[in-house]
Amino acid sequence: MDPSHTVLCPALQNLTNGFVSCGEDADMRFSYKNSCSFSCDQGYHLVGASRVTCTSGGTWNQQIPHCEAILCQNPEREAPLIMQCSESVTELRPNSTCSFSCEEGFELQGANTIKCSEDGQWNKNTPTCTCEPILPGLLPPENGHISCSSTESVYNSQCSFTCDQGYSLEGPELLTCGHHGNWTAEKPTCQGKEETTDKRGKETFTPLQILVQMFTLFIFHNVSTAPAPVAAITAGVAAGATALFSGVSMNKSVMCELSRFGFTSFQNCFLSLLNLVAHILLSFITATLTQRLLYRATKRSDSLM
Fold first, then answer.
1. Rounded-to-integer distance, Cα 219 and Cα 248, Å
2. CATH 2.10.70.10 residue spans of the chain
3. Distances from the Cα of 44 to the Cαs of 22, 62, 145, in angstroms?
4. Neighbouring C-alpha atoms within 13 Å toward the C-beta of 49
5. Which positions fall inside the Sushi domain (predicted)?
6. Are 7 and 56 in contact (CB under 8 A)?
7. pLDDT at position 209, please?
8. Which of 203, 195, 215 minimizes the C-alpha distance to 262?
9. What is the predicted pLDDT for the residue at 19?
10. Cα dihedral: 242, 243, 245, 246 (round 10)
C-alpha cells in the first residue's frame, strides 16, 4: 500500500501573526512527504524552521516555528539626555520613533529623532549631550598644559591641568563637566614662583621690602637732629619695622633693586601695593607717635632738671 495515502501528519494551523502554506491539494496537505512553509505578518520575524516535511512515521521533521514581533532595542542613555518615544520602550516596533533633548545647560550633538527600521535596527545613532562651552573655553593655561578624558566636553568628562617648571597652579587641578552643563570650577592659572635670589645668586628685594627700607632711611634721617634718647628709640622702632616687614639687611642698594624688580602679573602688583600702603601707614603712625611722645617726655624731663 502506498504510504502516501495512509500516513498523515498532524494538521497545521496558521501561525499567530503569520501564515502556513501546504499546497493547493487539500487531500494531500498533511500526507507523507508533503511539505509546508511558514511566513509572518509585517512587523514580525520567524523563529524556527521556515519549512517542515511529513515523515513516514506521521510526524513533522522539524518543530513548528512561531512569529515574534520585530523590536528595536531600548536606546542606551543617561542624564542629561532626555528621551521621548512614540511607543513604550518595551514595544519599539518598526516605524516607532524616539526624540531627544538635553537638560538645561547642555547642547544636543547628533540627530534629535531616530526611527526603528523594518529589520529592528535604529536608522541613526543615539545622540549625546555636551557641556555648553565656557568662554574662553578649556584651553591650556598660559605656561601650562591640559589633559582631558574626552575630545568633546560631554557629561562627566574630566580635564586635568599642570604647569611648566618654575610655575605653580593657582586653582583646582581637575575640572569635571557636571549635570548643569558647566564645569565644576573656574579654569586654573599658572603663576610664576617668587624667587629669593636672581640668576647671579645675589639677594633680591620685593617692592614692600624696598619701600619699607626707604621709609626707614627717611626716619633715620629725620631723627638725626632730635635729642639722643628720642633718636635712639625712634631709630629702634624704624629698624624693628624694617626687620618685621622686609626681613633683609639694610646694606643693599635699594635703588638698584628697584630697577631689577619685575612684577609677574597685575594681580601681584596690586596686592603688593595694598600691602605696601598698609605697612607704610602702620610704620609711619607708630614711628610718629613714638617720636612725639618720647620727645615730649624728654622736654618735660629737661625742664624739671
1. 17
2. 3-69, 81-129, 144-192
3. 21, 20, 55
4. 11
5. 7-69, 70-131, 135-192
6. yes
7. 57
8. 195
9. 94
10. 80
Can you give the pLDDT at residue 22?
92
If you write DSSP's letter for every residue of 166-210 in order, what string do you get?
TEEEES-SEEEB-TTSSBSSPPPEEEEPPPSB-TTS-B---HHHH
The C-alpha cell 619701600 sits at: 211
Q: Give the pLDDT of residue 214.
A: 55
pLDDT of the residue at 264: 45
Domain 144-192 class in CATH:
mainly beta
Give the containing element (helix H, strand E) for 160.
strand 158-163
Helix axes 207-222 and 228-245, enclosed angle (nearest 10): 180
Helix, strand, coil percentages for the chain (3-state, nearest 5) = 30, 25, 45
The pLDDT value recorded for residue 103 is 83
CA angle 190, 196, 201 (to 5 degrees): 120
Question: In the structure, what pLDDT confidence band is assigned to residue 238 with cuts at 50, 70 and 90?
Answer: very low
Placement of cell 495512509 in the chain: 6
| 3-69: in CATH 1.10.287.130 | no
Mean residue pLDDT across the chain: 75
Contacts of 40 (CB under 8 A, 6+ apart): 15, 17, 18, 19, 46, 67
Name the CATH superfamily, with its identifier, for domain 81-129: Complement Module, domain 1 (2.10.70.10)
